[in-house]
Write a structure and sequence with these properties.
alpha/beta, elongated, 24% strand, 3-stranded mixed beta sheet, 7 strands
Length: 134
């Protein structure tokens, strides 16, 4: 089954923040939205990603005060991305290659969505289930 990432993110709300947002505010939004990562956008362009892992490793473990630092100081800059036209299995391979669990989806250099490892594994399970039924 062919499943393009544009179809996966279609209709989903893109959750983003700015590089100068305070970490504490971004973490509160992550919790409120019940997501593990957020794209960091500046002037409409993707400049980074802020994830739970960034929070753990670059803020908590580094003993930084999340009220006093900006996302730009602890985000992952220039993250791996996928395009809306990519297939889900290509995105899975990319995640494995880059050791990441969240992948921003871009169109013409601008973020339009985010897929998680969980999203793509669910599609893969559905795909295999369909294959078995045939």
């Amino acid at each position: 089954m062919e499943t393009k990432l544009g179809t996966v993110v279609q209709g989903r709300k893109l959750i983003s923040c700015a590089p100068n947002d305070r970490v504490v505010d971004v973490v509160k939004r992550l919790a409120a939205e019940r997501v593990g990562a957020m794209v960091v956008v500046d002037g409409g362009r993707l400049v980074g990603i802020f994830t739970e892992r960034d929070l753990l490793m670059r803020v908590v473990a580094a003993e930084k005060d999340p009220r006093g630092i900006q996302v730009r100081d602890v985000m992952t800059p220039n993250p791996a991305t996928a395009t809306v036209g990519e297939e889900y299995y290509d995105a899975l391979e990319k995640m494995q290659r880059h050791h990441c669990r969240h992948l921003p989806v871009v169109q013409d250099g601008k973020p339009v969505g985010m897929v998680s490892l969980r999203d793509l594994l669910f599609i893969q399970i559905q795909d295999k289930d369909t294959e078995i039924r045939r």
